[in-house]
Structures are given as C-alpha cells and as structure tokens.
Amino acid sequence: MGQPAGKQHRPATYADLEAVPAHLVAEIIQGVLHTFPRPASPHGAAATSLTMDLGQPFQRGRGGPGGWWFIGEAELHLGEDMLVPDLAGWRKERMPLIPTVTFFTRPPDWVCEVLSPSTATHDRIRKMPVYARAGVTWLWLLDPIARSLEVFHLLDRKRFAQEQTFAEGDVVRASPFHAIELDLTAIWDAIAPEGG
Questions:
Q1: Is 17 strand, coil or helix?
Q2: Alpha helices of the chain — where are they, by DSSP H?
Q3: Tell me: the pLDDT tens digits for 141-188?
Q4: CA 132 – CA 136 distance, rounded (Å)
Q5: Helix (H, G, I), strand (E, B) or coil at 145
Q6: Would you say 60 and 177 are in contact if contact means Cβ atoms under 8 Å apart?
Q7: How far is residue 8's CA from residue 89's CA, in Å, rounded to a whole number?
Q8: Where would I find the beta strands (DSSP E) of 50-126?
Q9: Bigger pLDDT: 64 vs 136
Q10: Gap between the Cα atoms of 89 and 107, Å rounded
C-alpha cells in the first residue's frame, strides 16, 4: 500500500523493531521493516543439525581445528540495517570472546540463511547485498525442502560469487569449513517429506 500524497515515508527505527510481536521475526533493511512468521519445523531442524555438525569441530575443536563461535538468530546491526540470520559465525581471532550484548555490530565472517518458501526471495534479494556491504566473507543458503546447499564467497563489498553448489546425498567439504566432511543427508534425514 502506498503512502498518501504529500506524506513522507518515515524510516523504520529500532523502536519499531522492538514493537513487533515475539511470534514474528523482524528486520530493517534500507529503512523498511520486514516481518515474517517464525520458521516451520524443517527450517529449525536443518539449522539445529548444521549447528551441531559445525559446533564440535569448529567451536569446541573436537575433531577439527576450532577457531569459531556460532550463534543462532543473532541480531546484527550492520550500519542502518538490522538483520537476523539463521546462523552466524565469527572467527575467534576477530572476536576472542562472545560479548554480552543484545545485538552485534561486528559483522560475522560467515552467515547461513536456511531458506523457506516465505523467506527465500527476501534472503536472496534484500539480505545478500547487506551482508556484502558489511564485509561478511562467506554466505551459505541451505534449502531443506530442495535439499541443497549453495556456498557464496565475497568478491568485493558489492557482491558475492557462488563458489560451490551441493545437492541431497552429497558428502561435501564446503568453504570455509572444508577441514571436515559434511554429510548433507544427515542435516535433513529426520525431516518428513512435504505432507508427511
């Protein structure tokens, strides 16, 4: 719905974000407030499985090199934009300890968005350019319905290049976590097919 003639659109503020009911996910991109329902079960299950797979070797250093912190649904304030990625990762060399904060202003080194039908376009069209401008080096798009993983690497502060694409059944070494093999089937093997 457009604004009435002669009336100026007011950019959304943090107060607008805080006023959104808790059952919705809210983000501000280029002054516009976007809200979405909380993710459905395939989305949450995939995010949890991926966190478990990466957490042991990369956060705790068990069976892998360590050196990372992972946080689910961390609120990021990247300039004027306020985003909530499904998963975010910081290299410990850049963030030695996790600060006690409500939101993060330090851009993560890696972000994973778990795609769902209601958010896929938003994640690709609106959020990817914000992550690029903020200097997020790696971006993953994980689709539990299509059962695919797309890996993007930052070329410059304007755009990502798609570096790897994986499909169901693949055992992969996905950047920047190529030190371990990741079994994609295990990420969504507990998710029933649609209608199941």
A1: helix
A2: 14-18, 41-54, 120-121, 128-134, 184-188
A3: 999 888 899 999 999 878 999 999 998 888 899 999 999 999 888 887
A4: 6
A5: coil
A6: no
A7: 38
A8: 68-72, 76-78, 81-83, 87-91, 110-114
A9: 136
A10: 9
